[in-house]
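Q: Here's a chain of 305 amino acids. Please give me its 3D structure as tokens.
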Amino acid sequence: MIILGKKYLFNEMELVFMQKKSGNLSWLSFSQSDFATLKKSIDEIIAKYGPQHIVLNSRQNPTNELLTYLTHLELEGNSFITTEHFMESELNKCYIPEDNSDLNYLQNISSYTPFQYFQKRIIDYIGSIGLLLVAWPVMLYTAYRIKKESPGPVFFRQSRIGIHGKPFQCIKFRSMHVNGHHDPYTRENDPRIFDYGAFIRRTRIDELPQIFNVLKGDMHFIGPRAEWDILVEEYEKEIPFYQKRHLVRPGITGNAQVNYPYGQNLDDTRQKLMYDFYYIKHWSFWSDIEIIYKTIHTVLEKKGL
């Protein structure tokens, strides 16, 4: 695979995925004034590794000369695709430009149709009630361990932003000591988290009480993460159109949660938003089933943070 340009800097996880998928990964700089050098580099890579998948990842518009060359390569068994289409077809995320130069990614990001919402609620009730029937012993034991390890309430309630930007009280098992110092982001080895709290965060047991938010109608079983209202105010200032993720209800788990680690900064938030937008744009009944499968795998592998 050849990445042509550096408009989007793929993260480490994505580079590993691309390397495994293609067998080789080459990153070439793009210059409209030096087509001969670029052509030579691409020809050498194809001669060495065989037909390539070329991703147009340049901030500059490709010249007619380059497009003609790429078309000839396609006739020879190679292929080329834009970064935007590659990310949606291979990485399950929508590209969000940092300079707001292209707003095409906002197309088809809209609320669910009445029939789609009906399907979502079926998944909500089946998923939530089924999970509750299976997990109630774990929930009782968790309540016991929390009271034993850290004085204070079992549940943690926090104002989160729901559909249409309206706040609601999100319920989770408490995993931090009461009156810990204020920090909107959770850090690695965060001292505010007690021992069993770290376990329930890693295995996502702390999310189980949100079942009641789902049954109440505040949330879906699957959807974008319900974010703290204070953080949402910060994100809106830095990331235009962030509020579009609130066209749908948040979920206990979702596309961003199973594909990206727990966020610690604004860059992580932008990455997760790309996954959220893809989920909303391409939602289907089967996409929810796939996310449920990935969530189970994540929990069993203890990858959740």
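Q: Can you summarize the key feature?
A: The longest helix spans residues 114-149.
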